Amino acid sequence: MSEQIFLIDNEFFNKGEKDENTLYITLMLNRPQQIGLFEKIITFTDFLVCADGGANRLYDLESIKDQYLPRAIVGDLDSIKPHVKKYYEEKGVEISQNNSLDDTDLEKSINFLFAKKFFNELLQKSNLRLLIIGAFGGRLDQTISNLSNLVKINKLFKEKNPFSQSIIQMMDQYSLATCLLPGEYYYKRALKLEQTKGLGVLPLGNFNKGKIESKGLRWNLDGLEFEFGSFISTSNEFDESYEGIPYFKTDSTIFIMTCINENV
Ligand SMILES: Nc1ncnc2c1ncn2[C@@H]1O[C@H](COP(=O)(O)OP(=O)(O)OP(=O)(O)O)[C@@H](O)[C@H]1O
Ligand SMILES: Cc1ncc(C[n+]2csc(CCO)c2C)c(N)n1
């Protein structure tokens, strides 16, 4: 029996048309934010959370900081600047402090969401789109930890609701990362947002050997054996002449990384 093919549809980024059965959550991390991209993202965000110093990045978007308040700021609060904390406190933003030395502020933010009744209920009955912004660059241990969390969150979502159509992605101003757990996927990119070139299909999900099949790429992967440290696909491209929706079939956990257009 063939498995269901999961659709990752990014077109709403451009169209600004939200799916009415989906809740859009944005989690801002402590990395530079590009204002134009943020303004696009915030138009479809229902629930914005900042992980600790992520609140400084929101506050620093000077011209629009009054317009978008986060629903919560979560973390050990060692990075949020005192005047930023005061500013959001005075506006009534929920500030959730968690001083555990075993979890990063990103993990604490995810735990915060999972502790909310509405979130668990939504996870059961509708779809969530969780976009984690400011996830790359800077410290490499933090970036790799973020990617590891992308896999962890995907597994957690699937555990809670195996039939969920929820999509969790990470991005910064240069890249968009989507984690594919073993299975079959269509990947409908956002044409204006995601470039044709500079596509990575990367076996970084569990670092095991795996087989990948793809359609719609310039260099398709025809059941080739993939392994970090051996064979990966970088600087690949979407094939513009392909008439279908790009397709991936993988038996191990991988990442699709696309490039963001500079002028979004
Ligand atoms: N240099 C970086 N590169 C990539 N991601 C980062 C970087 N710095 C912070 N982050 C992300 O932003 C989140 C919030 O960052 P913040 O600076 O508030 O935390 P931190 O105290 O540096 O790290 P931790 O989460 O370990 O407490 C981090 O949990 C991490 O996911
Ligand atoms: C195996 C292991 N490695 C590192 C840490 C340290 N650590 C991980 S997340 C975190 C919080 C940072 O704000 C800290 C200190 C740990 N606890 N366990």
From TrEMBL:
<dbReference type="InterPro" id="IPR016966">
    <property type="entry name" value="Thiamin_pyrophosphokinase_euk"/>
</dbReference>
<dbReference type="InterPro" id="IPR036759">
    <property type="entry name" value="TPK_catalytic_sf"/>
</dbReference>
<dbReference type="InterPro" id="IPR007373">
    <property type="entry name" value="Thiamin_PyroPKinase_B1-bd"/>
</dbReference>
<dbReference type="Pfam" id="PF04263">
    <property type="entry name" value="TPK_catalytic"/>
</dbReference>
<dbReference type="InterPro" id="IPR007371">
    <property type="entry name" value="TPK_catalytic"/>
</dbReference>
<protein>
    <recommendedName>
        <fullName>Thiamine pyrophosphokinase</fullName>
        <ecNumber>2.7.6.2</ecNumber>
    </recommendedName>
</protein>
<dbReference type="GO" id="GO:0009229">
    <property type="term" value="P:thiamine diphosphate biosynthetic process"/>
</dbReference>
<dbReference type="InterPro" id="IPR036371">
    <property type="entry name" value="TPK_B1-bd_sf"/>
</dbReference>
<keyword id="KW-0547">Nucleotide-binding</keyword>
<dbReference type="GO" id="GO:0030975">
    <property type="term" value="F:thiamine binding"/>
</dbReference>
<dbReference type="GO" id="GO:0004788">
    <property type="term" value="F:thiamine diphosphokinase activity"/>
</dbReference>
<dbReference type="GO" id="GO:0016301">
    <property type="term" value="F:kinase activity"/>
</dbReference>
<dbReference type="InterPro" id="IPR006282">
    <property type="entry name" value="Thi_PPkinase"/>
</dbReference>
<dbReference type="GO" id="GO:0006772">
    <property type="term" value="P:thiamine metabolic process"/>
</dbReference>
<feature type="domain" description="Thiamin pyrophosphokinase thiamin-binding">
    <location>
        <begin position="183"/>
        <end position="254"/>
    </location>
</feature>
<keyword id="KW-0418">Kinase</keyword>
<dbReference type="GO" id="GO:0005524">
    <property type="term" value="F:ATP binding"/>
</dbReference>
<comment type="pathway">
    <text>Cofactor biosynthesis; thiamine diphosphate biosynthesis; thiamine diphosphate from thiamine: step 1/1.</text>
</comment>
<dbReference type="Pfam" id="PF04265">
    <property type="entry name" value="TPK_B1_binding"/>
</dbReference>
<comment type="similarity">
    <text>Belongs to the thiamine pyrophosphokinase family.</text>
</comment>
<keyword id="KW-0067">ATP-binding</keyword>
<keyword id="KW-0808">Transferase</keyword>
